[in-house]
């Protein structure tokens, strides 16, 4: 489960935004610590236009307050629920996918004390996400919410034993055709994304032990986690 990430103003993030078709980004939010429920930047497509939008990192909002509905932990959306019609992410997965840019993210082993910061060696991260638009029908106020899709851990055992035993976030490949299809709301045949939902480490990552999650304080040496193509 991806429960924390950051976005740093860097050449890698600028390159990713360019690949996503974003050339002007004054509204893009850089943050050293994005936590569930906070406001983040997402990249989405409306008709033929790519845009950066603010969204609450929590897919289920209260329809009156437009704040996170904390009864449901919806900052992540499990891939095995995406084809369940009653699931919260079912319709967004088909109609409103997004990319959530990041520089690094945090995973915990589940023992309450083992946490790692994970960052790519030479790229930015394009999290595969979904979003929803909410409207307060009394006031007309609107808000966007978003969620990161999570996958089971890869089969190699390294991730489950050292990083997170149950899941990993969906990181999209830096492939123009894939990114274009993912962002295209007219692409509703989601079977073309089945390969993306196979748990794979698509980027070479560096894992660094940290102490307090909100402080991102490094307490141990780096370890490289090879990508599947290495």
Architecture overview:
This protein is mainly β and 230 residues long. It has a single domain, classed as Alpha-Beta Complex (hypothetical protein yedk fold). Helices cover 12% and strands 33% of the residues. It has 4 helices and 13 strands. The protein has helices at 11-19, 90-95, 158-162, 176-183; strands at 5-7, 31-34, 39-46, 49-56, 76-78, 97-102, 104-108, 115-120, 125-135, 142-151, 168-169, 205-210, 223-225. The strands form 3 sheets. It has a 6-stranded antiparallel β-sheet, with no helix packed on it. Strands 5, 6, 9, 10 and 11 form a 5-stranded mixed β-sheet that branches. The chain is globular, with a radius of gyration of 17 Å.
At the fourth level of CATH, the homologous superfamily is SOS response associated peptidase-like
Query: What is the quaternary state of this protein?
Result: single chain
Strand/helix succession: EHEEEEHEEEEEHEHEE
CATH fold descriptor: hypothetical protein yedk fold
Number of helices: 4
In one word, what is the shape? globular
Radius of gyration over alpha carbons?
A: 17 Å
What brief labels describe this structure?
single chain; 230 residues; mainly beta; hypothetical protein yedk fold; 6-stranded antiparallel β-sheet
């Amino acid at each position: 489960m991806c429960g924390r990430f950051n976005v740093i103003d860097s050449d890698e993030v600028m390159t990713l935004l360019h690949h996503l078709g974003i050339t002007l980004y004054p509204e893009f939010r850089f943050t050293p610590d994005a936590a569930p429920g906070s406001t983040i930047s997402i990249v989405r497509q409306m008709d033929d236009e790519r845009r950066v939008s603010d969204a609450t990192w929590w897919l289920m909002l209260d329809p009156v307050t437009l704040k996170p509905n904390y009864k449901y932990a919806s900052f992540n959306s499990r891939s095995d629920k995406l084809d369940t019609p009653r699931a919260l992410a079912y319709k967004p997965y088909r109609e409103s996918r997004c990319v959530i840019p990041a520089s690094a993210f945090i995973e915990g082993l589940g023992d309450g004390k083992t946490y790692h910061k994970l960052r790519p060696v030479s790229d930015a991260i394009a999290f595969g996400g979904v979003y929803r638009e909410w409207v307060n029908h009394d006031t007309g106020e609107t808000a966007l919410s978003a969620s990161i899709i999570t996958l089971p851990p890869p089969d190699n055992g390294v991730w489950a034993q050292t990083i997170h035993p149950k899941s990993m976030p969906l990181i999209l490949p830096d492939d123009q055709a894939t990114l274009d299809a993912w962002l295209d709301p007219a692409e509703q045949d989601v079977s073309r994304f089945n390969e993306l939902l196979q748990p794979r480490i698509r980027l070479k990552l560096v894992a660094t032990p940290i102490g307090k999650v909100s402080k991102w304080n490094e307490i141990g040496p780096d370890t490289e986690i090879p990508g599947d193509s290495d």
